[in-house]
Design brief:
12 strands, 10-stranded mixed β-sheet, 7 helices, two-stranded antiparallel sheet, single chain, 22% strand, alpha/beta
């Protein structure tokens, strides 16, 4: 499975009512994808995808909320639940696509397949202004983000030079599904504010720096999930894995697999810390495997003097 990297964030302050201040610019990552087009002055053309499936509550609520905000939204999402597929793409020579209703396309593949089809066919000739993936059931923080189909859909967009946001709803200790669905309302209210802030700040430039997307994780707040988050935090992907497999030999050549949450102390400034404290975590990410200059220097020193 391809492993994406979430960029360290020196400074990104999203000026919402919960976090006021002057927002410095994001540093762009090394990137080979085409530069994103300038953002339009008005509402955006949005390709909406997810990993829970085209008819899941999160994506349907997102479609309604983003459309109500004035944006031109088209769903291009998996036909079936594709949670945990990460950045997997194009694993079969053919793909089945259904068009069950206007503005909705259901692709029998992964989130990455859905985005690829949407960009190549549904938005052929003119890419969308933004790809939004989600909102997803449960958080996509720490190691969960690396293997998330929701994040994978956003990464597929970034690889094609289209700005992207991954949206997820849930705490590290996930509540019941009904409470999570309720919390999708506040998640999408924030998403609308975030998108509007990006559009206004972009003016004649792109919504986000070239090759940079946002991984947004909204906590579940309150017993009914309808509470207001404690704030917004600019974060990075916590390095811990969260999920640990437990294998038991059945004695017949098969192994039983159980997965447990192994939550360790949260990294200061990371997404786990923010969501656990009831804050919205916003982490920048890119679609390639490049690290920073310091890591390149370490590698250069490592291979110094080596010969084939």
């Amino acid at each position: 499975m391809r492993r994406k990297r979430v960029l360290p964030l020196a400074a990104l302050m999203l000026c919402t009512p919960a976090l006021a201040g002057t927002a410095p610019a994001l540093a762009a990552a090394p990137q080979t994808a085409p530069a994103p087009a300038p953002a339009p002055d008005g509402p955006l053309r949005i390709l909406l995808t997810n990993d829970d499936g085209y008819n899941a509550p999160g994506i349907r609520k997102a479609f309604e909320r983003l459309t109500a905000a004035g944006h031109d939204v088209t769903i291009v999402a998996p036909l079936t639940n594709q949670s945990g597929t990460g950045t997997k793409m194009m694993s079969a020579p053919t793909i089945t696509v259904k068009h069950p209703e206007p503005k909705v396309w259901a692709v029998d593949g992964t989130p990455g397949d859905s985005v690829a089809f949407g960009l190549a066919e549904v938005f052929a000739g003119r890419a969308p202004d933004l790809v939004v993936s989600g909102t997803n059931f449960g958080p996509n923080v720490a190691g969960l983000a690396t293997h998330s189909g929701t994040v994978g859909g956003a990464v597929a967009a970034l690889e094609h030079g289209v700005p992207a946001i991954a949206l997820s709803t849930g705490g590290v200790a996930a509540p019941d599904p009904v409470t999570t669905v309720n919390a999708m309302g506040p998640t999408l209210d924030f998403a609308v504010k975030l998108i509007d802030r990006l559009r206004v700040r972009a003016r004649s430039g792109p919504l986000l720096p070239q090759g940079v997307g946002l991984n947004v994780n909204h906590p579940v707040v309150g017993a009914d999930g309808k509470g207001t988050a404690a704030g917004v935090a600019a974060t990075f992907q916590d390095p811990q894995t969260l999920l640990e497999p437990d294998f038991t030999d059945a004695g017949d050549g098969t192994w039983k697999v159980a997965v447990k949450v192994d939550l360790r102390p949260a990294a200061k400034g990371g997404d786990v810390e923010a969501v656990s404290a009831g804050r919205i975590a916003v982490s920048p990410m890119n679609a390639d495997w490049n690290t920073g200059p310091a890591d390149h220097a370490v590698t250069s020193a490592l291979i110094s003097g080596l010969r084939p």
